[in-house]
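INFO batch 0412 | record 1 of 1 | parsing
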Amino acid sequence: MKIRSLLLGALCTLSASSLWGQEPVRRPYDPYQVREVTEVPDEIKMVRGDKLKAYKLIPDVARVVRVEMPDTLTHYTFEYISPEYRSLGVSYLGNTNSVWQAKLFFDRPRRVSDFFYLDGYDRMLYTPDAVRFYDTKTPFTYIRYHKNFKTNESEDVISGDFGVNLGKQLNIGANFDYVYASGFYTAARSKDARYRLFTSYRSDRYELFAYIANDYYKQEENGGITNADYIYNPERYTNSRTRIGSRDVPVRISSGELTNRIRSGHAFLAQSYRLGSYRTTKRKQPLAEEGLGTAHELQSLDSTYFVPVGSISLTSYYNKQSRRFFSHQQSEQWATLFGTPAVTHSRTEADGSTTTYTLPNDTAQLVTLQNTVALTLHEGFRPWVKFGLSAYLRQENRWASLPDRTSERYTRTALSSTFIGGLIERREGTGLNFSARGELGVLGADLGAFKMEGDIRTAFSLFRKQFALEADAYIDNARPSYFAAHHHGTYGWWDKSLNFTRRVELGGRVHLASWGTTLEARTASLQNYLYFDSKGETQQHPDLLQVLSLRARQMGSYGVLNWDVEAAFQQSTAPSVLPLPTLTAASDLYLRFLLAKVLRVDLGVKGYWHTAYHAPYYTPTDQQFALQSEGTVGGQAPLLIAYANFRLKRARFFLQMYNVGEALMTNERLSLYKYPYNPMHLSAGVVVDLNN
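INFO prediction complete | emitting C-alpha cells
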C-alpha cells in the first residue's frame, strides 16, 4: 500500500508539472551544428513524434549522444523486465532481480570489476555511461507494473520514468524501480529498490548533466536444489498427488536466514563550456506564409545560430558500494555446503565451558571518486572538419575496506591512479564513420595499464539492397580486480598477488537490412584470465586462452506471420577454465494484426535452447559463478514462453505463460547447476505512457 500511495502521489505531482512545461527553444537551421544521427523507430515517432528525446553521455569527455527511448516497442513488452531479454542465453537464480550471467561469452563484461560482488548485477545498476537524460516538449510519465498471479510465489514489479522541461533549457526527472519476489523455491526471496533523480541544462555555451542514485538488492540464499531428479522426474515424488509443487523440491539451505545485501550510492556531475561564435545567415521566405502577400513575394529573414568549435569539460563521479553476507542464526547446513570456515567465534556458556560457533557477517566496502578534465574539438564546425578530437586527464581515488582477522577491525586501503586518454570519432558522415579511443595509466596503482578500442562503420546499396558493415577491435592490459585478489569472508579468505589481465578482441558484423539478416564473427585472445574455482576462489589461467564466436540472426514476415530466429556458435580452447555451450539458439514466432483498427496485437511463442555444458554453480559466499564438473545443463527440451502483447494508443499490456513447455514435454529446466528455471505460471503486465 505504501508503494501504491507513493506512486499515486508522484503521478499527481508530475501531471501538475505540465503547468510549467514549455517547448524547448526552436533553433534555426545550422549547417555547422552536430546532427543527431541515431535513427528513432517509426513506432516511437507514431506515439511521441519528436517531442521526446533521450540522450546518453560519454562520461570522460561529457559528450552527448542521442539514443532511443527505453521500453517503447510493442513486441518486446513482455520481455523488457525479464532476464531472458538480456542475452541469447541466460543463467540466473529464477527471480527477475536475481544475479545472472550471460551464456554467451561476448555478452559478459570484459573485465572483472574492482567490487566484484556486483558483477552478477551487470546492466541492473545505474552507471554514468548507461543512464539517460531527456529533452521533452511536454511532460512525460512511463509507468510499468508486472505481476505473476501467484499467492505464495508472488512477484511484483513496479517502475517508472518521469521528466519535464522547466523552461527552454532545463529538464528534471526521476526513475524508480521496485521488485519483490517471494521465489518459487524455498528460501529464495529477493527484493530491490532503486531510484535516480536527474537534471540537465543545455544552452549554446554551457551544458550540465547531473544525477544522484541508489541501488539496493537483497537476496535470500538457498544454495540451489539438493537433487535435480525432482525436476527431471517429478512423478517419482508425487506421493499419490497429481504433481509436486516447486516448494516441495528440497533445497540445500532451507533455513531462510542466509542473506546477501548489496548497496551502491552514486552522485554524478558533468559540466562543459563550449567555445565558438554566433553566425548569421539570410534566407528568403514567401510573404504568403505570414499572411502578408502572395506566394511570389519574398521577404528576407536573418537567422542567428551558435557554431561550437571546441569545449572544455569537468566530470565528477562519486560511488559508494557495500556488500554484507550475513545470518541471524546458526545452521549446520553451512559447513556441509561451504566447507571449513575461515572465521569462527566463541562464547562462554552458563556452566563455564567455551563453545565455538560460526555465524557469517561478512562486509566489504569500496568508495570511488573520479574527476576528469577534457578538451574537445568538435566535428563539423567547418565543412572540411570531418571528425572530432578529445583529450582527457582522469584522476581516480579508491578506498577499499575489509575486516582484519587479527585485530577484528576493518582496515582501509587507499588506491590512487592517474590516466590520460584521447578520443577521435566521425559520426556524421554519410558513407564512412569511425571512432577510436585509448587511455594509459601514468601514475599510481594502474601504472602501465592501457586500453585501446575502435570501430568503423559503413552503409551502402548494392543491387537495390541495403547493406551495412561494421568492424571493431579492443585491446586491454588491466590491473586485476582488487576484491578478486583480496576477499575476507567467513567461508573463504585470501590475499593474492594477481598479474595484469590481457585481452585482444576482434569482431565484424554484416547487416543485410533488406533481407532482415545479421551475421557476426568475433574472437578474443585472453592471458591471465580470471576465473573462480569450485570453491568460488579467484584463480588465474596464465596460458593463452582463445574464444571464437559466430552469430546469425534472421527476421522476416509473411502476411500476419512474423519470425525472429537467432543462433550462436562459440568455442573455448580451455573448457575446463571457461566452459561455454557450443550452440545457443532462440526463436520467436508470432502473429501480428489489428483488432477494430486500433488495438495492435502480437500472439506468439518464444523458445530458448543450448547444447549441454558444465554450467557454473553460483556461490553465495562471494556471489560468483564458480566452475563445477559434477553435472551438465542443457541439451534437452527448450524453455518456451507463450505471450500476447497488446497496444492501444499509449497503453501497452501483455499476458505471458512462462515455461509453457512444461505442459507439453519433459522439461529439465535448469538454468545453472543446482538452480532451475521457474515452473510454468501465468503473469501479466501493463506499461502506460501518460502524455501530459
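INFO post-check: Residues 2-16 form the longest helix (15 residues).
INFO record closed
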